[in-house]
Sequence to fold (182 residues):
Amino acid sequence: MSRKLMVLLTLWCLALTGCSSGDVAGTPREIDPTIDICPVCRMSVIDEHFAAQIIDSQGQAEIFDDIGCMSIFMRRLEAGAKDSILATYVKDFESMEWLKAQEAFYVQGRIDTPMSFGIVAFAAEEAARKFAEEVGGKQLTWEQVLTEPLTIGLDIEFNQEDFNVQDLDTGETRETQEERGN
Fold:
């Protein structure tokens, strides 16, 4: 009888483990502002309109308070580490639902985001287009979010050297300013 009980207990534990492994399948996890800290800027993730997350192949989630912070994090990863990313998600600016980062439509402009990168995501391209017109911003693809110079509208000096940040007012990068002698 104890052998049957042991087998049943083992199967029950395995079933529970399988049910709780949603992150391993790449499912985004909910944000807990009391414990979730952005690994780039070390700020609490309080306003979910701008949140993003990466889930690695081990099911571990990294939560970001700003899409720009996730872009910096991804740029810093070495090639092998990038291969271990199972999924990337961003919050839809309107509904605050998780979207696959590769499928979202982005707007960058003078938008007050937690770290002033000014990037927000939308589920629908039309919503992104309208918002870009409203704020005088530009639409971006996921690839552009990861590769183009980051614009910091409110804090021009933040990471300017490391990430070739672009000044919103002049459109110049630090490299361009140095070449001109500014």
Summary: The chain has a mean pLDDT of 80. Strands lie at 52-56, 61-64, 85-91, 98-100, 105-108, 119-122, 138-140.
